[in-house]
Amino acid sequence: DLPDMVEALGRGTERMGCRRRGSHQIVAMAAFVFMASGDTTKVDEKDRERMDKPHERRKWETRVGRVWEGVYDLKHSGAGMRESDSIPIGSGDAAANVWVANDGTMIFLLAKNDAWSENGRLLKLGEVRLRLRPSMLLANMRARLHVNNATIVVKLDSGITIQSWFDMTGGGLLVQVWDPSSQTEVELTLHTWRSKRRPFEAGEEGSASGANCRPRFIYPDVVADDENDAIVWFHRNENRSIYRELLENEALSNIPEARDAPDPLLNRTFGGIISGKSSVAGEGRKSVSFKKTSRITLESSVKSSYHEMRAFFHTATTRSPQEWVDRVVSLRAKGEEAEAGSISFANDRWWRHFWLRSWIQLCTDAEHAANRCPEEKFAVERGFVLERLLHALSSRGMFPIKFNGNLFTVKGDKYDPDYRQWGGMYWFQNTRLPYWGMMASGDGELMQPFFDMYWKSCRLHRTRVKTWFGHNGSYIPETMHWWGAYGDGDYGCSRERRPSWMIQSSYIRHYYTPSLELAVMACDWYKHTKRDQFLKDVLLPLSDDILTFFEQHFPTDLNGIFVLSPSQSLETYQNAINPLPDLAGLRSLIQELLQIPHQSISDEKREWWENLLSKVPDLPIMPVPDETCSVRNYQVDFSLNDDAGQYSMLAPAEAWSPVTRNYENPALYAVFPFRLFQMGKDPPPSLSFNVALQAYARRPFPCNRGWCQDAVHAAHLGLAHDAMKLVVQRFMSTSLFFPAFWTMYFDYTPEVDTGAVAKLALQSMLVQYDGDSIMLFPAWPREWPVSFRLHAPAETVVEASCVDGVVEHLVVDPPHRIADITFPGSSCRADQ
After folding, report:
1. Residue 668 main-chain phi, psi, to 5 deg
2. 396-429 pLDDT tens trace
3. Three-state DSSP class for 663?
4. Helix (H) / strand (E) containing 74
5. Looking at CB atoms within 10 Å, which of 203, 249, 541, 564 has the fewest?
6. Which value, to the nearest 10 degrees, does the dihedral of the CA atoms of residues 428, 432, 433, 439 take?
7. Given this model, what pLDDT does residue 62 score?
8. Exposure string (b/e) for 360-387, b if CB count within 10 Å is 16 or more?
């Protein structure tokens, strides 16, 4: 009941330093709860069991105490904030940018993971604006993001405290307001900018990239009148969708497998319902519903010591708008059964489990206590924590992270908050990087939406391959809408005298590498989790599709060796024969598949894989252009003439046009993502490790921004100082007020890959693996003390520390895996 809920909330907020009084002297409070529909992914049960043991919990909480103690918290003081000062919170499916404007209005810019418009754009849901009467005095406002449970607390000198957080177990957002004077009233207003049908402005159509062959329009939201005490609003793709147009453009509209599939955008409806109630002092503490003063405004009916507002978000494809409204009204009724106190306790438990999964610490507790942690080390520690935080806030819905801003884009100078450069399509090169780093940090379950989207899209890819090329198999396009269609601009608006397979954009025309990388990532996920259902339902059929495509699409020479042509080496070399990324990908994927236990694979399938592997050409190499040339501005810690491979280096392809169109280093794909060259691992036959070192030293495009992977390549090559330098540069890059909202370089602000690459490289400096072997400290600089807890394949957890080149602490769970630990680097060893 309400008194119990208020008391529970008091206990929950005491941890934040908020005031708490006896149950009969409760401070004035307003609570604002958003509940989002949709399933949320559970914490790994094995970790849950471990962490619920009191002695284990005490030990691990000591290790992650810096998160609990607020070491990485973000603080803002002074006058009001702008959109660029916003702070992220979220449930993984729904999210919000939060800030307090100069007029004292607290603004929640709302987003949802599946709010796809008729044009294939990922739209915002709208803004909710919270005002207090009397209004806030901002001169001495203090705002703080408590990282331990993703809670924003705003305090004013008047004694008012506002606390905002999402519920990670049910998707809700709770905003509480305490006022010692008990005189505060609350006004809640919905603001939407999609108010009428209009064409895109000049330049704005870039946010609908992939659907620009015809004039497009933005359509209005609907505010319904169904509820007397609630605001109901939604956006509906009413009989509007680009899906059929794109099928027709690709010559697939008459193919039954594509034609008969349901339109994923048509009549998709998303929005929410907001309501509120106020408690009345006295016996029983009764509640009074908010009054609706307009279609978009709710106000507290009385001055009260407690107000509570709830909103429920929902996305569904329905036969009518009313069906959607009925569903969201039912969600409200069900959601309001949950007490805020129980939500708070479940939420805290979720975050405790999350933070105990992994950590990386570079400074001692004493250094942090005395505020003497060096700036570079603190930036790396905090960067790792905030990257994990963002992944938790945005990676638990139905769809993968949007590479161009995630759920946290804000209104820019020119266009409304729905705008994001490069639009609603997914680009594999950019999307994959956050997910590569999730396994080592123990967040592998957050990868499920990534695999789900790409695997489900293969139905359309198979149809396309059969229709265009007349053979079986499928491939993953580099750029695609989430259901698998090419964007019309990439595919080409005018198809006259072009065969259906002739993609207009030369950047992706013969770009097949994403298919191989996706399958290798699936192999990694299976190795970590040992989920046999994933092996059966996703990994094996996905790999069969991809390998069948390569086998049937490309010819062989007189010796039975594949000739991958026409092809390209990523986007950079757009005319190539036997591009290294694809050759490395084929070798890596087939070798990974052959490591799967025999009982899971038929002899026939294993023979097929071995036969395919025998047809893959050797990796291409080329002479070093100039043995005496400098190694640019990077100080690499290896000799350039230390073995038989001193005069050779990995090449981008067997043959290629020298014209470059992008800034990638394809030769280094043999290092990452396909890991044929790693510290502590034998290189491919007839090649020395030095061909990879030379390729790194003389890479044509040194780059440490956005999706560039120099830091990861350096880590996998054992170049400890190079890797650390690049990781520090990334974690200290220019950002908005929130330190992990990196400013745009390639994609859009906040740039997702800047921090994702830094996190992945940092983890790779500490832990790598090959087969059963777990390689510790393969690229760690001796002068940087470190303590960490990270994850390895076969559900293995490694906890270790290294000081002055000596391993001081090492715990491996399960214990028998300690026999698989190796130390390939020279900077930290257990035998010193």
Report:
1. -85, 0
2. 999 999 999 999 999 988 899 999 999 999 999 9
3. coil
4. strand 74-78
5. 203
6. -170
7. 58
8. bbbbeeeebeeeebeebbbbbbbbbbbb
